[in-house]
Amino acid sequence: MLVRWADLQSLIYMVLYPSLMAWQWFYGIQWYLYLIMLILSVGLSVVQHNHTHLRMWRWKPLNRLTDAYLSVIQGIPSYVFFPSHIGNHHRFNHGPEDETRTYRFGGHHNHLMGYLLHPFLALTVVVPTSLSFLKKRSKNSDYQPIFEIILIGASAVILASMNVQLWFVLVILPQMHGLHWLLGANYLQHAGARPSSGPEATEPSTLDYSRNFTGAVNWIWFNIGYHSAHHESPRVHWSDLPVLHERKKSNVPEWLIERSLMFYMLRWMNAFSRKSPRNFHDLTPEG
């Protein structure tokens, strides 16, 4: 039933995350299990993202069920990926018409504060777009988005009524952590990069609108670091992105290929108020 066997990793995350939540609900919170949950919450954001781009199952009802399941455990309706992410972000590739372009909020910048604020600023765009999309889908008698919202609300009410403190610590906080990374990933991958269209655009063959991370982050978060390859071929399965990256990296400027996400973010902390790490406005004409 799986389109690709690599998605067994996705299924493991989908089972392990609520299992750790349930264990700690009944037997007490343990810091190392909670830390694993936080790592999985980001991974499941990527799973939800990947499943929107390329369906996991060969049977449509099972894909719809997966959408609903991911909506509940992530606290984010799966349908929201369609209007802003697939319908806009991947269409305009960080260009002036991209609703969530990083330079929409305060101009071109690339620093820690920009990353921390970007998820909140992006929500001011994503939420209205998602509500408009919901209205259109409902008019077309597609009630999957409403079903996802109802499931999220019902599960929240049930769990909060059982124990509001545990609900907040074991459900809401990890969901907020996953959501912040989900929206913040747009900043990590595009802040400081050149727009793909407009007066500052370069030749189409130059893939300088997205940053890539080639290190260990890809092992735990489904090759999310190979972002240029993903933008160029959004329907390619996540397990094929490393090979696609190798084919296309000659068109990606070296300053947009990072080995370590952790060291990249540490450079932010060492240059909190400067335009660091490097962005395209720092390049010389020869660079």
Can you give a write-up of this model?
By secondary structure, the chain is mainly alpha-helical. It has one domain. Helices cover about 60% and strands about 0% of the residues. It has 11 helices and 2 strands; from the N terminus they run αααααααβαααβα. The protein has helices at about 10-25, 30-55, 60-75, 80-90, 110-140, 145-160, 165-190, 215-220, 225-230, 240-250, 260-270, and strands at about 210-215, 255-260. A two-stranded parallel ribbon has the order 1-2. Helix 2 (about 30-55) packs antiparallel against helix 3 (about 60-75) and helix 3 runs parallel beside helix 6. It starts with 7 loop residues before the first helix and ends in a 17-residue tail after the last helix.
List keywords for this structure.
287 residues, mainly alpha, two-stranded parallel ribbon
